[in-house]
Design a protein that fits this description.
The chain is an alpha/beta fold. The chain has helices at 14-25, 35-55, 69-80, 95-106, 125-131, 154-160, 181-184, 246-262, 264-283, 336-347, 359-365, 383-403; strands spanning 63-66, 86-90, 111-115, 136-142, 166-169, 188-192, 204-208, 288-291, 303-308, 332-334, 352-354, 372-375. The structure holds pyridoxal-5'-phosphate. Pyridoxal-5'-phosphate binds next to α3.
Length: 405
């Protein structure tokens, strides 16, 4: 249940595509004219085209491959912003957005505003709109929180920010929730390959809307216009220098084709069912606080919990949902680290504990600095596994209540 970190297992076909590339292809795409190089190019372009279909991107060449979403996000932040620019980000951002922005801010190059999020993890589009100034050059938005799953209303935020370029981080939603760059008005889309797109680690990419310019993070060989000593200005070569992770891109292509063949809607429906059962089961438990919208249709399949000590009978309080948490009346009973260890060692349930690289999100949810225990079921989790997880959580929570430690 740690698919928000990286998906496991991968669907059939991913490993096979990588083995095919290693065993039968083994060439650089587009660098030579021999059969293997042509086959490598066909595979890489096939992945690009599959991604374009998935995200409704009109021109596949505006997608470039990166190592992960961190590299895609850095490419935009360092490639678009100039001295004197202002950026709006939200409290739900991941450190892969926060840190490069804070670095540019600390260097005196840009200023940054942080849009607050409520205790469910949602940002008010009007609030984001109010933070936009004449020198705002970018709004950086996490589509779904990797801490509590909250999905932001991208269309409303797009409307609220007018023409300001929108960078959408779909690390948690690509492959799991429908993403349509045209309908959402996205200018830059940063995705990672190894989560719900089911590719291997070390894959990801960036979409840049036609007509937008960007400076590359790296410059070098592209296999094109080699007579020129300057970086090509056309896509994807502008942002793709050096030999890529083509073995990984082959695997990513198989992962994306699995998503397309299965259908994002089918994947979403299964994950929402798992989420609904999980939330319903956990809501009944005393001694537990759940964070996030707790409505499957409003969140990615991610639920964070903390184990709190239940109150003696008689006091009015209800558990379930951060809105229902009675802060003065509870205190941490089992530290997230300890709960994570119990879940792994006694129940063989893999979760992630702590701050999940998103410190501002925990400040919004009231779980800073200890963080939470995060459960993130994926497409290959079963209802039975969800029931087992609920039972394990109940046992930990009840033990606290019974023993009072
Ligand atoms: C919302 C969000 N953004 C960015 C990232 C960074 O992804 P990667 O490690 O693949 O670069 C993650 C990873 O957990 C994430 O959840």
């Amino acid at each position: 249940m740690d698919n928000a970190a990286t998906s496991f297992p991968k669907p059939p076909g991913v490993k096979e595509a990588m083995i095919h590339f290693m065993d039968d292809v083994g060439a650089n795409p587009g660098r030579s004219r021999h059969d293997q190089s042509m086959e490598a190019a066909r595979i890489v372009e096939g992945t690009r085209e599959a991604l374009a279909v998935l995200f409704n991107i009109p021109n596949p060449n505006r997608i470039v491959f990166t190592l992960n979403s961190t590299e895609a996000l850095n490419t935009v932040i360092y490639g678009v912003l100039n001295e004197g620019d202002h950026v709006v980000m939200t409290q739900m951002e991941h450190n892969s957005v926060i840190r490069p922005l804070r670095h540019l801010e600390a260097s005196g190059i840009i200023t940054v505003s942080v849009a607050p999020c409520d205790r469910m993890g949602f940002c008010d589009p009007r609030e984001i709109g109010r933070l936009v100034h004449p020198n705002t050059a970018l709004v950086a938005l996490n589509h779904a929180s990797n801490v509590c799953g909250a999905i932001q209303d991208v269309v409303a935020i797009r409307e609220a920010i007018g023409d300001v370029p929108l960078l959408l981080d779909v690390a948690q939603t690509a492959g799991a929730v429908p993403v349509d760059v045209q309908a959402m008005g996205v200018d830059f889309l940063a995705f990672t390959g190894h989560k719900a797109l089911f590719g291997p680690q070390g894959t990801g990419g960036l979409y840049v809307r036609d007509g937008l310019s960007i400076r590359p993070l790296k410059r070098g060989g592209t296999g094109s216009v080699s007579e020129s000593e300057q970086q090509p200005e056309f896509f994807p070569d502008l942002l793709e220098s050096g030999t890529q992770n083509n073995v990984g891109i082959a695997g990513l292509g198989a992962g994306v084709r699995f998503v397309l063949d299965t259908g994002v809607e089918t994947i979403r429906r299964h994950e929402m069912e798992l989420l609904q059962t999980f939330v319903n089961g956990l809501k009944k438990l005393a001694g537990l606080t759940l964070y996030g919208p707790l409505k499957p249709e409003a969140q990615a399949p991610i639920v964070s919990v903390t184990f709190d000590k239940a109150l003696p009978d008689g006091l009015q309080m209800s558990f379930g949902g951060c809105g229902g948490r009675s802060v003065p009346a509870t205190f941490e009973s089992v530290h997230p680290q300890e709960a994570g260890t119990i879940l792994t060692e006694r129940y063989e349930i893999s979760v992630r504990v702590g701050l999940h690289c998103a410190p501002l999100a925990h400040k919004a949810l009231g779980t800073f600095p200890d963080g939470t225990v995060r459960f993130s079921p994926g497409y290959f989790n079963t209802m039975q596994e969800v029931e087992i997880a609920i039972e394990a959580i109940r046992t930990i929570a009840e033990k606290i209540n019974i023993t009072g430690d």
